[in-house]
Design goal:
Length: 477
């Protein structure tokens, strides 16, 4: 049986969200739960929260949505505390096991820590082998467990947790946005020198919170302070900053541009650029690069909506709602038969005939991976009477795998590696197809303070992925 969310509507998936607090009040668990719910879009397969009570770390985690994991009395199992770390994860195929759900709690000779991680470390297998030779045991199969064990090992060597995070960060290769807490009431945030994945922090009268996205700070009443810079390590205690250094040199290539295309919530600001503004600009660039005579523009909910606004404004074409989205078909909806699978698009997205029938439509979406979803959506639009369907895509063609935390299909399954743009258009049933160019995407995201990684489009990565853990360990978030 196929899950509608994992087959018919599968998008490139980002590996998870992190959230943490250092407060003067004992509300860490509830605030962290709310922070994770604001970032649920980054991962729906598992969630967990760890808090400190005295010198003990209590952790509650399970598979499922944040609201499912912390329903009933689950949240009350976490004692009052001012310090916490939390995580919501997306798992790669076959890896959705409880043992891989974060946070990871690691005990060592002089203390204990809880770690949450977003990204993918490509030398984790090597580090895992080294630590096993030194007597460290592992129970899970993710790079995040390796990171937590390495931090504990380095902390023992350095004599304190901040030194442990710095020492570990210097050894890790790849993408990591980390939040770590220890049993001495310290919260540490660290971001890899490339800045592959976002990380920011905010403050209010009670203290500080750290999150993958600024929307989580907004939702928990923390005023955005700033992004954690690439290569930076910041430590908090009782809501105040006790350490702030950049022990890792920032690199020239970094932030995953797909954060702006798809991953991040539109009301977030990532490294100085509004996600909404970036997507609006992508649509405007698409209108400039791929104009077409048409009657209306519509976006595919929810991934193409903001870009469709930009396309309509730049082209002068009217913007219409092209679909009604059934928001009550959840992640557990199962298509039991082939007939049901073939009609799944209409179950999730039903074309709005009144806005489509007899019209030439520009259909805007964020990406095409294998083409299965796009073909079904275009067929549904034609079934609703669309005279022409011109597809516009706010990312360049996917041609390469990601080694740094994005679950993109194998290269042999990516449609752009087998067909030209015109051939893809015919395969999808579109009258025309236009992708934004790499230069156009850079222009659209020009206000971002960081350079971008576009390795999934052009094969040029910020880190040499040779020796990557793909196929050996789970990409984690």
């Amino acid at each position: 049986m196929d899950d509608i969310g994992e087959t018919i509507f599968k998008k490139p998936a980002e590996e998870c969200a992190v959230f943490g607090t250092s407060l003067l009040i004992g509300e860490a668990a509830g605030i962290t739960c709310n922070g994770l719910m604001a970032q649920q879009h980054r991962g729906q397969e598992g969630a967990g929260i760890a808090v400190l009570s005295g010198s003990a770390i209590t952790c509650v985690k399970n598979r499922g949505l944040v609201s499912e994991v912390f329903s009933g009395d689950a949240l009350s199992q976490l004692p009052p505390s001012g310090i916490s770390v939390g995580h919501t994860r997306y798992s790669t195929t076959g890896s959705n096991h409880l043992k891989n759900v974060q946070p990871f709690v690691t005990e060592y000779l002089k203390g204990r820590i809880a770690t949450v991680h977003n990204g993918n470390v490509v030398n984790a297998t090597e580090i895992r082998s080294e630590l096993k030779e030194r007597g460290v045991d592992f129970s899970a199969s993710s790079d995040s467990e390796v990171i937590s064990a390495l931090i504990a090992y380095e902390a023992l060597e350095a004599g304190d947790i901040v030194g442990g995070v710095v020492g570990a960060a210097k050894r890790l290769r790849g993408a990591f946005s980390l939040i770590v807490m220890n049993n001495e009431n310290k919260l540490i945030a660290a971001r890899d020198p490339y800045g592959f994945r976002p990380l920011c922090f905010g403050r209010n009268e009670w203290g500080r919170a750290v999150a993958s996205e600024s929307c989580a700070l907004d939702s928990t009443d923390f005023a955005f302070e700033r992004d954690v810079e690439p290569g930076e390590v910041i430590a908090f205690q009782n809501g105040g900053v006790i350490y702030d250094e950049k022990p890792l040199t920032s690199a020239s290539v970094g932030l995953c541009v797909f954060e702006y295309v798809y991953f991040a919530r539109p009301d977030s600001v990532v490294d100085g650029l509004s996600v909404y503004e970036a997507r609006y600009n992508m649509g405007a660039r698409l209108a400039a690069e791929h104009p077409v005579e048409a009657d209306a523009v519509c976006g595919v909910p929810d991934s193409g909506i903001e870009a469709s606004f930009g396309y309509a404004a730049a082209s002068g074409l009217p913007l219409v709602s092209g679909f009604v989205k059934n928001r009550y078909i959840g992640r557990s909806f199962i298509c039991p038969t082939q007939t049901a699978r073939e009609s799944a698009v209409k179950m999730k997205l039903n074309p709005l005939r009144a806005n489509i029938e007899g019209k030439r439509i520009v259909l805007v979406d964020d990406s095409i991976v294998r083409g299965t979803t796009s073909a079904k959506i275009i067929a549904a639009m034609r079934g609703a009477g669309a005279r022409e369907v011109h597809m516009r895509v706010s990312s360049p063609p996917f041609r390469h795998a990601c080694h740094f935390g994005t679950d993109i299909d194998r290269e042999e399954n990516l449609i752009a590696n087998h067909m030209s743009v015109s051939e893809i258009a015919r395969k999808l049933g579109a009258d025309s197809l236009g992708y934004i160019s790499e230069d156009g995407l850079r222009i659209a995201c020009g206000k971002c303070r960081l350079p971008f990684c576009m390795g999934c489009f052009n094969g040029r990565y910020g880190v040499d992925p040779k020796g990557s853990n793909l196929g050996k360990m789970l990409m984690e978030g």
